[in-house]
Amino acid sequence: MIQQRVTKYIEKEHLFSLDAKVLIALSGGADSVALLCILHTAGYHCEAAHCNFHLRGEESDRDELFVRQLCKRTGIHLHTIDFNTTQYAKEKQISIEMAARELRYDWFEKTRKECQADVIAVAHHQDDSVETILLNLIRGTGITGLLGIRPRNGAIVRPLLCVNREDIIHYLESIGQDYVTDSTNLEDEYTRNKIRLNLLPLIQEINPSVKKNLIDTSNYLNDVATIYNKCIEESKNNIVTTEGIRISELVKEPAPEAILFEILHPLGFNSAQIKDIAFSLHSQPGKQFCSKKWRVIKDREFLLIEAIESGNEILPPFQIIKEEKEYTPDFLIPRDKGIACFDADKLNGDIHYRKWQTRDTFIPFGMKGKKKISDYLTDRKFSISQKERQWVLCCGEHIAWLIGERTDNRFRIDETTKRVVIYKIV
User: Fold this and answer.
1) Which residues pair with 371 in a beta bridge?
2) What does residue 2 show for φ and ψ, rounded to 5 degrees?
């Protein structure tokens, strides 16, 4: 009997206890209605939550009415909410599907806390898990994507993962319980529906047991993933530093590309990019690889991982205070790169800050000839990202200070100096 299978699965996976309060995500479709009936009949303390996304006109209102009547008949307290999903998607610049997902799960968690429920039960079943595995395979995935849908994710639990869609329909027919049908589920407009309506039936012609085999494989891979993830974490500890991924240690690992995948795929890098990054490990420094929000820079000793800045910096990411005083013979120039001292009379142009530019030159303190800033930074073994973050203090058209590094010899203090100007990074 389906109810016994579900309750045994809840116990086996430690999803919640018999005295727990369960908030059920109730859409009105067959799966969520079956979940509510099974848990309610089994004696669990249930409340329900329904979202009206107003995406299907009269159908959306029909679903809400059905859910209200069902909860009234079964004596289950119902929480409802209306969302302007289209407006939210436009504001966030995301798809309607993603908008609906964000809205409902944020609200479910808020409602769970308000009604003091222990868990949020959603009605994913074995067929959903199979579709997820195939979807991930089509898109490209690591081992985690082959595990399908897992029984628990924080406060979200899935008690129906031990049954399939056919079991659910038979159960509802056996107890005479009706449900609503979302017409969009019968269309093959979206990728998941194409898998459900077109791909799976075709695969089942080749092997009728394909769903069971995929579920069995995902359960086996779950144990494999536990061992795999433990090894990945150990490898990360060996190679990841505050500066970046240490290349010399990464190449010693038995599968460098797999480790890179686990580090970089969550940051939006695809499989092809990660292959290119792995290939670049033995090449010259300077290559960059970008996802939407992150970039990887192949430097000399490290792979640098940085968030991509939005827009150019107009103001420096530091503060500088200025002090001016009389020059006396006992004045000592501090040996601190965060402090720059100049002859006030020589520093007589417009003072401003900017990032250094490719053709910039200066005369480093103590030298007579000009030097390109790019060459100076290279000699100092600055990484690409360090170079990009370098600012200069300008006096008119000339660079007076490579900030935090070295001053220009033309503005130095000498025996003719009467007043000094001191700039200090704080």
Assistant:
1) 362
2) -60, -35
Average pLDDT over residues 39-45: 96
Burial class (CB in 10 A: 0-12, 13-18, 19+), 20: middle
Tokens 């059920």 belong to which residue? 24
CB contact set of 335 (below 8 Å; sequence gap of 6+)? none
Quote the crossing angle between the two packed helices 2-12 and 30-41, to the nearest 10°.
80
Q: Which of 6, 224, 228 is nearest to 124 (CA)?
A: 6
- The pairing of strands 398-402 and 391-395 is antiparallel
What pLDDT, in 10s, does the model give residues 227-242?
Answer: 999 999 999 999 999 8
pLDDT of residue 312: 53
Band (pLDDT 50/70/90 cuts) for residue 116 is very high
pLDDT tens digit sequence for 337-352: 999 999 999 998 899 9
Q: What is the rounded distance in angstroms from the CA atom of residue 360 to the CA atom of residue 371? A: 9
Among 244, 240, 237, smallest CA distance to 295 is for 244
- Please check whether residue 269 is in contact with residue 289, taking contact to mean a CB–CB distance below 8 angstroms: yes
Residue 318 DSSP one-character state? S
Structure tokens at 67: 């859910």
d(CA 133, CA 143): 10
Q: What is the pLDDT of residues 14-37, one digit of tens each?
A: 999 999 999 999 999 999 999 999
**From CA 304, how far away is CA 297, in angstroms rounded?**
5
| Dist CA 343 CA 332 (whole Å) | 13
